[in-house]
From TrEMBL:
Keyword set, alphabetical order: Dipeptidase, Hydrolase, Manganese, Metal-binding, Metalloprotease, Protease
Protein known as: Xaa-Pro dipeptidase
High-level lineage: Bacteria, Pseudomonadati, Pseudomonadota, Gammaproteobacteria, Alteromonadales
Gene behind the chain: pepQ
Cofactor: Mn(2+)
GO CC list: cytosol
Provenance organism: Shewanella cyperi
Length: 439
């Protein structure tokens, strides 16, 4: 299994070290990690797509098998209870035979409700980790998602092992292939729906396998931050294209955004300017820097951009202080990335989970951490024409500082976001997305 196999051994050793440490502190014998259970749709006989417990997939890339369990104590080889029912309706998972199999004591489970037979005899000092507290109840497990354990693991999850970094690079590699195909589809006249199909074919993943719902937005739809409708109709005029789309590799996510103008015009110049802002911000990343300060620096840069492009007048500091930049850039600069797209630990400042919230004026910032080696973050400044937010400026004195003619001119283009995935190293930043040649 190429170079991942040796990295995986070290990954498992590090997870065991973390679990041993926190279990000793909490005087627990071990953790019982549940992969999850199928969720049935209301009044139906079908299930929602299965999404595995991230703490389960941290140990091994089994993403699609409910009713599996891991018994971990940080010392012994972890036990994997692997679900293989007799079922002629659905595909049954093959018996594990992968590069990761040798790292587990594997027991097969044929009936989901018989798992108790494979669990330790006394569960008083074992804790359940998962979402189905009713199942823990039935099994008689008293400790459930203990806060101290969760805080510890969530804090440490922000420091990726070499195996995880390699998975994240590969998730970027796959997504970049999709972005390149999607870009061509846009310039060749495709609809949003057709671009989505092109993207998914290029990455070789279904809409349920990619890590989040793709945002494929033409023209003014690019101003809707979480736009996931996919119009089948080709728009009469082709102005702009914003694509926010990722890919999964062994359960790790990439999260990449690009924006394109169909023609060379002022919107295209604005994209180039925001692109430079993003690169300048990435250049400021280094161990010891507060992510919050990078977010605040983004507002200063957006203010300068608003002045350069005559979208606003006045002085840059005033535009930030009065919340004018926030109307054009209402979301956070980015977030931690890993097993989850918005990975855990963004506000957690130590093993005990000490929470440092975003500044009051920046409620959508998802990360306040001090940067450190092995952290992986997205960097995604944006600039949009969002009428509901601009209306607030228009209704008071701030409206005089906004150039509404320029706003009208840019409105049909929607907005811009440029998002890369970056690893912080001790001596440099690794921009996984740009390293793959995505401009
Ligand atoms: N695609 C979700 C995000 O950028 O945070
Ligand atoms: Mn994104
Ligand atoms: Mn993101």
């Amino acid at each position: 299994m190429d170079k991942l196999a040796p990295l995986y051994a070290t990954h498992i050793a590090e997870l065991n070290r973390r679990y041993a440490d926190i279990l000793a502190r909490e005087q627990l014998d071990g953790l019982i990690i549940h992969s999850g259970q199928a969720h049935r749709q209301f009044l139906d006989d079908m299930n929602y797509p299965f999404k595995v417990n991230p703490h389960f997939k941290a140990w091994l890339p089994v993403l699609d098998n409910p009713n599996c369990w891991l018994l971990v104590n940080g010392r012994d080889k972890p036990t994997l209870i692997f679900y293989r029912p007799v079922d002629f309706w659905h595909k049954v998972a093959d018996e594990p035979n992968a590069f990761w199999s040798e790292f587990f004591e594997i027991k097969l489970l044929t009936k989901a409700d018989k798992v108790a037979e494979l669990l330790p005899a006394s569960l008083t000092r074992w804790a359940y980790m998962g979402e189905h507290l009713d199942v823990a109840d039935v099994l008689g497990i008293k400790h459930r998602n203990p806060e101290a354990v969760m805080s510890y693991l969530h804090y440490h999850r922000s420091f990726k092992t070499d195996y995880e970094l390699e998975c994240l690079r590969r998730a970027n590699q796959i997504a970049v292939r999709g972005h390149q195909a999607a870009r061509s589809a846009f310039f060749n006249g495709a609809s949003e729906f057709e671009i989505q199909q092109t993207y998914l074919s290029a990455v070789g993943q279904t809409a349920n396998e990619v890590p989040y719902d793709n945002i494929i937005a033409l023209n003014q739809n690019a101003a809707i931050l979480h736009y996931t409708a996919l119009e089948h109709q080709v728009p009469a005029q082709r102005l702009s294209f914003l694509i926010d789309a990722g890919a999964s590799y062994f359960g790790y996510a990439s999260d990449i955004t690009r924006t394109y103008a169909f023609e060379k015009n002022v919107f295209d110049e604005l994209i180039a300017a925001l692109n430079q802002v993003q690169l300048d911000l990435i250049a400021k990343m280094r161990p010891g820097v507060r992510y919050t300060d990078l977010h605040l620096a983004t507002h200063d840069k957006i203010a300068a951009l608003l002045l350069d492009f005559k979208l606003a007048s006045g002085d840059a500091a005033g535009l930030v202080e009065q919340g004018i930049t926030s109307a054009f850039f209402p979301h956070g600069l980015g977030h931690m990335l890993g097993l989850q797209v918005h990975d855990v630990g963004g506000f957690s400042h130590d093993e005990r989970g000490t929470h440092i919230a975003a500044p009051e004026q920046h409620p959508f910032l998802r990360c306040t951490r001090i940067l450190a080696p092995r952290q992986v973050l997205t960097m995604e400044p944006g600039l949009y024409i969002i009428d509901s937010l601009l209306a607030e400026l228009k209704s008071d004195a701030r409206g005089k500082q906004v150039n509404w003619d320029m706003v009208d001119q840019l409105r049909p283009y929607g907005g811009i976001r440029i998002e890369d995935n970056v690893i912080v190293h001790q001596d440099r930043n690794e921009n996984m997305t740009r390293d793959l040649g995505l401009a």
